[in-house]
Amino acid sequence: MAEGQWFTRQRVAGVCAMALVMLAQLGFAGSSSCGWGSLAWAGVVCLAPSSLFLISRQTYSALVSAVVVFPFMLWANVSECWGADSGGGAAMAYVVVFLFGVPAAFFGGWLTLMVSKLLRR
Fold first, then answer.
1. 48: nearest Cα among 33, 30, 68
2. Which phi and psi (to 5°) does residue 7 adopt?
3. Sign of CA dihedral 86, 102, 60, 121
4. 87-109 burial by CB neighbour count: b if 16+ within 10 A, else e?
5. What pLDDT does 85 receive?
6. Residue 25 in contact with residue 42, Cβ under 8 Å?
7. What is the mean pLDDT of residues 24-42?
8. pLDDT 10s digits, 46-61
9. Is there a contact between 60 and 68 (Cβ–Cβ < 8 Å)?
């Protein structure tokens, strides 16, 4: 990456993927019984690996990381916010997202980084 070229095509693709995931998250918040604040913070936490990969040279890993965590977030939103209220208890679907989705996003981005380094050789 040349000096002064922060807005590369790869980085813009990663930022767009992160923005689309966050817009989908906020769309769920607006069209369901779940609160805006809780889903917004959950989206920020789930996209933390993607934002870390934006700093790297191979920023397609941010795009991969955002795409990997999206199905986990989609499942949690559908089961928590649109599912029938079974009553009692706390919302626990995002525990699965934090325990499996965020590490899977980090691993997917890291794997993309490693494969791109191997292919450059």
1. 68
2. -90, 70
3. negative
4. eeeeeebbeebeeebbebbbebb
5. 65
6. yes
7. 78
8. 899 999 998 887 788 9
9. no
CA distance linking residue 8 with residue 112, whole number of Å: 17
What is the arithmetic mean of pLDDT over 84-113?
84
Which residue's entry shows tokens 């966050």? 22
Structure-token match 């999206």, residue found? 70
Please report where in the chains the tokens 């089961």 appear, as a residue.
79
Which structure tokens are listed for 8?
A: 């590369």
Number of residues in the chain? 121
Angle between helix 60-77 and 102-120 (nearest 10): 160
Q: State the Rg of the chain over Cα.
A: 16
pLDDT of 70 above 90: yes
